[in-house]
Amino acid sequence: MGTAARASVEEFSHTAAEPAGLVFNIMRFSLHDGPGLRTSIFLKGCPLDCWWCHNPESQQFQPSLMYFAERCRRCGECVAVCPHGAIALVDGTVATSAACRRCGACVEACLAEARQLFGCRMTLSQVIREAERDLVFFDESGGGVTVSGGEPLSQPEFAEALLAACRQRRIHTVLDTSGFAPRETFLRVSRHADLVLYDLKFIDAGKHRAYTGVTNEQILSNLEALRELGRPVVIRFPVIPGINDGEGDIAQLVAFLSRLGLRRIDLLPYVGLGVDKYRRLGLTCRVAALRPPPDARLGRIREELTEKGFAVNIGG
Questions:
Q1: Is-contact 46 64, C-beta < 8 A?
Q2: CA-CA distance, 247 to 240, in Å (whole number)?
Q3: Long-range CB contacts (< 8 A, 24+ apart) of 107-111?
Q4: pTM of the full structure
Q5: What is the number of domains present in the chain?
Q6: E strands of 149-219, at which residues?
Q7: What digits encode the pLDDT tens for the residues 180-207?
Q8: Residue 203 belongs to what domain range?
């Protein structure tokens, strides 16, 4: 149940003295982002470009405009109100050019909700108020707040302020991160988390760069630093068929995590969610034809990890 994504046309007011961040969704009653019932705060912007990303609207460091062609009435209202002349109706097709500034005027004018803007600026107090609505559920379930993304470390000041504010209120905190950030930033923000969910895609540097667009040297190094500090951490490994689920990939993962003494791992099988989002954002999905991993392969990976002494959970 997201509470921020489609409210994002509004630019929330804030003062310069109060931390604020770009949020693209607030998911209440989440069961897969840490222990208990959680309120997950998804911050916008990510330096990784993972081929299989199921939330492509999270990647840009600005609001993202989605166009739902199946809802569009071709009425031309969006064309008329656009102050930048970025929208045109040509042969019954609505097209948006690079002149779009994501001001939200077309979204407000579209009664069919065919145009939606994802990402709004929210202050720390606004986000905390959303989280505090669920305090009773946190207390009863052992849940709390998870700060995720995108990549939350791409908005380090806001992520740190949010985690710290939650801990001041005795709310359990989780940081869900790829670990792609400068060491100082990573350690500064993560110290406010009661638990870190650490997303590992590859151990192999070449494959990591090929499928995410960035190197993993800092990612692996930061995980080592986190382990040295003895912080609670759960590894999250997306199982992407034909990309990172080979015998060699799993063997590298086992060797690296065993060396660090990390034994808790969540396997997150690719499920194909988000393919339609790419089309609505005007992007190309590079794994559109990819199917979820067969149960037999997923079971084998789980069995292999279990045999090596890992506590394995499937699905987060």
A1: no
A2: 13
A3: 107/9, 107/65, 108/9, 108/81, 109/77, 109/78, 109/80, 109/81, 110/77, 110/78, 111/77
A4: 0.92
A5: 2
A6: 172-177, 195-199
A7: 999 999 999 999 999 999 999 999 999 9
A8: 5-61+119-314
